[in-house]
Fold this sequence. Notes:
By secondary structure, the chain is of the alpha/beta class. The protein has helices at about 15-25, 45-50, 65-75, 95-105, 140-145, 160-165, 175-185, 205-210, 215-225, 235-255, 260-275, and strands at about 5-10, 35-40, 55-60, 80-85, 90, 110-120, 125, 155, 190-200. Helices cover about 40% and strands about 20% of the residues.
Amino acid sequence: MEKFVSIIIPTYNRAYCLGKAIESVLAQTYPYFELIIVDDGSEDKTENLVKKYNADIAYIRQENKGPAAARNTGIQTARHDLIAFLDSDDWFAEKKLEVQLKAMEENPAYLISHTQEIWYRNGRLLNQKIRHKKNSGDIFNQSLELCAVGMSTILMHRQIFEHYGLFDEEFPCCEDYEFWLRVSALEQFLLVDHPLTLKDGGRDDQLSAVFRVGMDKFRIQAIMKILTSGGLTKEQKGAAITELQRKCKVYGAGCIKHGKVEEGTYYLNLPEAAGSLQSL
């Protein structure tokens, strides 16, 4: 019996690019999947666009709650054990599911896998820095530095959510960064070393642009959350505190530079208070 994959596309006012994402799913060489589109309160023609496709697509519309809530709705709707995500402004290479599923079947010890990506900015190929290259195995330290897993590259078993919970809806952005910290603290990640996901950035409606000034604030909150969880090893705590110090220094200094002295002072002092967690 073939394994089915539940593919979840969360979207918000992306009718102008959602079609490309949908078509990349429908064009997959691996045909055993369900496609779930979670419309997070769009005010454009998203619903009309989805209805134009002569395909069995589950369309769910909810009030605007943010990307974490939209992803969670998709997870709770999904009928199958294997779950993949696709952001509405990304698209899959046509063999994405076929290649990634085969790799997971050959490496059954892994509950989660991700792939390399190809990046474009405003339609032009963007060279990735070495630190953005995806890795296999223990990726916790890399996940502290940056969001080391592209959401649209993921294929995972539902068991991951059963063990580690859903996305934290308190995070308006960086919900993926927070989730990967939780998972990578204990799970090994399988890297399928092929560029099977493509993304085109540089637009003003992307969360990285909307929250451009304050993204480190949410990453700091995520590190504090994982530090207080009690689930880290001594080495992981040390790495988390080191990265917390770096991020707080950058963010705190930025706040002070822009006249937010009280907020900046708070974040500059935060690592000293968090340091006591290392001995717990």
